[in-house]
Amino acid sequence: MVSSGRMKLLRWAGSKSQSEHSIVPHLDFSREYIEPFCGSASFFFTNAPKRAKLNDYNSNLIDFYRRIVTRARSVWKIYNALQTDQSTYYSVREEYNLLSPCVRKAALFLYLNHYCFNGIYRTNQKGLFNTPFGSHSENKRKMGLKEIRDYSSIAKTADFFSKDFEDFLDMVKPEGACIYMDPPYFTRDARVFGEYGSSVFQNTDLKRLKSVVERWSKHNRVVVSYRRCSEFQELFSDTIVATTEVTRNVGGFSGRRKRDAEFIAVAGPI
Ligand SMILES: C[S@@+](CC[C@H](N)C(=O)[O-])C[C@H]1O[C@@H](n2cnc3c(N)ncnc32)[C@H](O)[C@@H]1O
């Protein structure tokens, strides 16, 4: 297990690291742990279940995880050699966008995540990463080799996938697992669209989420966390067990933060 005082492997918009106390009691890490929208997989890394399957639509994120499993030291050496000033950041960003998946790209992914604005993975319409430099980044310390190795040894227990959440579950066909679903929020606010690259969660995806939860909760415990809103309440009313407070950035890029509420829904056998 990686201790809570350690630097996080990744910063991620919507990371659940602040909501551990309210969501984790509903999860069962003695079962296989499955996260179809894993992002920074904060619960996975802090609770280190013995078996896990992690999925995210962002293929560069998943490639990064796979590389730290097999090439942690090489990833760290490239990452550690980079300066943390603004002009280095922009030349790294340019190089990152030119590379196909490889160890160097994974190292640049880690660097950009640590030194970009708010850990947001924003892409333009061509799919190129375009998050600006973070204003307080220059003084931020680098992650050490031991830390990355600790994360690497936890990541070794997981299988990684990069698919749409529904296709992923249809492919792995879980049985007796604990599935934690933390999708992006459906929103009519266009400014939030860039937070996870081009993958935007629509109202139709929320209905799709509902039918996916119904299908897989017959033989698995399924926990969903979602922004408190009428659309979710109507669809999931029979499974909502709690409401919790979270802190989020307003509009992703504005840098303002506000308190917000989230529903927790639990479906399937205890
Ligand atoms: C709220 S974040 C998950 C945060 C995560 N629980 C954590 O602790 O960091 C939602 C994630 O869903 C991913 N995503 C968006 N649409 C998706 C889809 N259709 N299928 C799978 N993943 C998707 C995004 O790339 C993003 O990483």
Short description:
It is built from nine helices and eight strands.
What is the fold's blueprint, element by element?
Blueprint: H1 20-23, E1 33-35, H2 42-47, E2 52-55, H3 59-80, H4 86-98, H5 103-115, H6 145-155, E3 158-161, H7 165-172, E4 178-181, E5 195-198, H8 203-216, E6 221-227, H9 230-236, E7 240-249, E8 257-267
Parallel strand pairs: 1-2, 1-4, 2-3, 4-6
Antiparallel strand pairs: 6-8, 7-8
Helix pairs in contact: 3-5, 3-6, 4-5, 8-9
The structure holds S-adenosylmethionine.
Describe this structure as you would to a colleague.
There is one protein chain. The protein has 270 residues and is of the alpha/beta class. The protein has one domain: Adenine-specific Methyltransferase, domain 2, CATH 1.10.1020.10. The chain is 36% helix and 17% strand. The protein has nine helices and eight strands. A seven-stranded mixed beta sheet has the order 3-2-1-4-6-8-7, with helices on both faces. α3 crosses α5 and α3 packs antiparallel against α6.
Features:
seven-stranded mixed β-sheet, globular, Adenine-specific Methyltransferase, domain 2, binds S-adenosylmethionine, alpha/beta, single chain, 17% strand
